[in-house]
Amino acid sequence: MADYIPPKTWTWDAESGGNWASINRPVAGATHDAELPVGRHPLQLYSMGTPNGQKVTILLEELLAIGKTGAEYDAHLIRIGQGDQFSSGFVALNPNSKIPVLLDRETGSRVFESGAILLYLAEKFGAFLPEDAAARTEVMNWLFWLQGSAPYLGGGFGHFYAYAPEKFEYPINRFTMEVKRQMDVLDRELAEHRYLGGEEYTIADIVTWPWYGNLALGNAYDAGTFLDVGSYKNLGRWAREILARPAVQRGRIVNRTFGPLNEQLHERHEASDFDTNTQDKIAAGTDA
Question: What CA–CA distance (Å, rounded) separates 70 from 49?
Fold first, then answer.
């Protein structure tokens, strides 16, 4: 195969991006006019059950589990493969056109970027973020570590290993090396502490688990064997412990459109939706 020679000036070839190509383009802004739906709760989440979306719904379910009733929320599905994130309503909340985005109708605040949403909610409800300055700083270290590291896992390794239209050794090796280094960073930290940043469960764990917890459990990119995830014993222990939390089990299926039908709750407006509106229940009602 001939070596690729970059052109003098790059032009966009929309057909060259493989899976998920439709969600990437070299310009910002809305492609169509559409208002976003609004539910009855103060917190309105517009998202999809990707790892970034799971971060927020897990935290919201954890807040509700400890009695923070003000964290009740409506989770509206944004189908990124269909371009919902490019609607005028969505772009007004997030000019970057990425899920998730949160609208707090109580304060009028729009909050985009998943890490920012977690920090906003933790501060709003006074939970899952230590008050002690040193402990808080350690949690923030890991929050920002995740936000900077996950693109190497998703946009780097995941893209070239699982989604790219062609397999190339160099980028797969490059990003595999980095992802394994990242797993080793986490494994070493979790050898010393029960959770990321200490002995207390915080937003550092909530922000990291959907990416690296799922990876350690072999549930990402069908790459468990390739990455030898079982060799990261401390990371695996942490991943399993967090998955066992009921709020995590609920939050991870909100706005999810893939996987087993009983793990897909396309929209969440009430706590009872987990019992009545998962896709297996909806399918059974349709069949009846």
Answer: 22
